[in-house]
Amino acid sequence: MPPRVQRLFAWAERRLPSLTRLRQREPLPIQLHRRRIYIVPTGFGVGFSVLLGVMLVGSLNYANNAALMLTCLLGAATAGSMLVAFRVLNGLTIGGLRAGTARAGEPIRVSLDIGASQRERMAVRLDIQGREHVFVVPAGAATTVEFDLPTEFRGWLALPRMRVHSRWPLGMFRVWSWLHPDRTVLVYPRPEALGPKPFEPRGDADRGRPRAGDELAALRDYRPGDPRRQIAWKLSARHHGLLVKDLEQPAPQEDWRLDWDGMHGLDDESRIARLARWIDEARETGRRWSLKLPDGYFDVAQGDEHYHRCMTALALRP
Prior knowledge:
It is a single chain. By secondary structure, this protein is of the alpha+beta class. Helices cover 29% and strands 32% of the residues. The strands form five sheets. A five-stranded antiparallel beta sheet has the order 2-10-9-5-6. The chain has a four-stranded antiparallel beta sheet with strand order 1-3-4-7, with no helix packed on it. A three-stranded mixed beta sheet has the order 14-15-16, covered by helices on one side. Residues 204-216 have low confidence and may be disordered. The chain crosses the membrane at residues 37-60, 66-89. Keywords: Membrane, Transmembrane, Transmembrane helix.
């Protein structure tokens, strides 16, 4: 870029930061005010202004008071619509931001709260990466705008620049302001499609056999010493003797010990993808697992909290 153009962009960023796409990142919440809101006439507004000019010249030339009054009324309505359009954005607050979870290559769902302390704001528009979202902000409350962001790589994903704007009420003026929140969302690594299962140490011979538990396995004849709560009274009434419920449960599955150093011949990204697949499979099958990384260790556990801790560690691997 030529030095003269660079100086022009630097001047625009310094003097008119809200007018340009080059606005620097800023922390949430963001409140819109008159110093960062800009307004220009639309194509329809320019054409309507030319029409008013022609009507004004004609009414003055022919001394037509009725036409002059109509021109003045339409001009006042045009000026009023400019003020109303400005007040749509003035005072808006862009507050809380929440993000879901997604793997690299999948869109991640992001929710953005936009509120107004006074007055209902009609036909507010938010442009994000070529998509426009239209919504209404109720008075004294906030509305939630949800949108999807494409992802390509694991790790932190910065939010793109956004433009909030409106053409309400008559479409004669466009009022806008640029937003660039200083927030990021976390993208989990993409798991490999196919691959081997983790190494399972050979357990005892009884692993996988039914054990005493709470699930009904069979009915048998009563033997002295059987607990009374296991007697099937309704079924025993139709037989000549007492029947006892045999309760059992399958043995727990082997815990998976996921070790970064246990995979040989793979680069770092391939190891991350394989560990991500193993963690997904363990979560889906109800297994417990541990994860050992070069810079950390997660002890044997299961559940959503354990899953998110492990996937976050994989996503933030250098």
